[in-house]
């Protein structure tokens, strides 16, 4: 069998982390993307820059500052201890927090572009028929922005699967708790277990190819439907 029990545990944990992150990002980023697409506020530029920071910052930098902030001596860590809650570093939910920040632009930007592409005319037409703001959002904007949601879901899931620096800094290397596929590959290489590393790394390459191919086909289908 090409995958050991440790490999399968890492794969399962990675899929669980990516799925959880994807769902939370779609829920949390939808109102943010809507605001960025329509607000005239002067804060739009700074907020957009903050959202895009994970695209240019080294993952270890993000992981380090999250570790400091969420740790027992950090502000959020101390607040959680004051509430009687455990701190998040070196836990699964700590990885989720890190993944939410690390994959944030891969969810926000496709949603923002989808909302901007809708334009004002469909919303104005719905308003003339008596639809309120929430009705216009749920019955007009969301269905029209469906391609953006598909892209955001695929990209955020795939990007989370490929994490390394953030999860290693924030979660360490705890089997069954924080050891994801990328860390498992690193462990195999350190132990000179290149055959096992090849199986996992090859799986990651195949997964990435399928994701990019699926995105390309989805975009072509969307363009053909519009035309």
UniProtKB/TrEMBL annotation:
The protein's role, per its UniProt record: Part of the binding-protein-dependent transport system for molybdenum; probably responsible for the translocation of the substrate across the membrane.
Alphabetically ordered keywords of this record: Cell inner membrane, Cell membrane, Membrane, Molybdenum, Transmembrane, Transmembrane helix, Transport
Similarity-based family: Belongs to the binding-protein-dependent transport system permease family. CysTW subfamily.
Record keyword Transmembrane helix present: yes
Residue stretches making up the ABC transmembrane type-1 domain: 11-217
NCBIfam families, alphabetized: modB_ABC (TIGR02141)
Listed PANTHER family: MOLYBDENUM TRANSPORT SYSTEM PERMEASE (PTHR30183:SF8), MOLYBDENUM TRANSPORT SYSTEM PERMEASE PROTEIN MODB (PTHR30183)
The encoding gene: modB
Name under which the protein is recorded: Molybdenum transport system permease
Transmembrane segments: 15-37, 49-70, 90-111, 149-170, 197-217
Membrane topology designation: Multi-pass membrane protein
Annotated localization: Cell inner membrane; Cell membrane
Location (main, coarse): membrane
Superkingdom of origin organism: Bacteria
Keyword Transport on entry: yes
InterPro entries registered for this protein in UniProt: MetI-like, MetI-like_sf, ModB_ABC
């Amino acid at each position: 069998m090409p995958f050991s029990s440790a490999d399968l545990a890492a794969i399962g944990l990675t899929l669980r982390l990516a799925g959880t992150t994807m769902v939370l990002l779609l829920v949390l980023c939808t109102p943010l993307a809507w605001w960025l697409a329509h607000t005239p506020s002067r804060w739009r530029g700074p907020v957009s820059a903050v959202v895009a920071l994970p695209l240019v910052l080294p993952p270890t930098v993000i992981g380090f500052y999250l570790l400091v902030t969420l740790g027992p001596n950090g502000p959020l860590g101390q607040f959680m201890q004051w509430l009687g809650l455990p701190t998040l570093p070196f836990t699964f939910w700590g990885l989720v927090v890190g993944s939410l920040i690390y994959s944030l632009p891969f969810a926000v930007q496709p949603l923002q572009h989808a909302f901007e592409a809708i334009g004002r005319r469909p919303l104005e037409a719905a308003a003339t028929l008596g639809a309120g703001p929430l009705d216009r959002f749920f019955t007009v904007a969301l269905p029209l922005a469906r391609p953006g949601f598909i892209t955001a879901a695929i990209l955020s899931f795939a990007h989370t699967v490929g994490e390394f620096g953030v999860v290693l800094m924030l979660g360490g290397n705890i089997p069954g708790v924080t050891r994801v596929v990328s860390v498992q590959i690193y462990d195999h290489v350190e132990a000179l277990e290149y055959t096992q590393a090849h199986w996992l790394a090859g799986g990651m390459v195949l997964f990435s190819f399928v994701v990019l191919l699926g995105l390309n086909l989805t975009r072509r289908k969307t363009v053909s439907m519009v035309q």
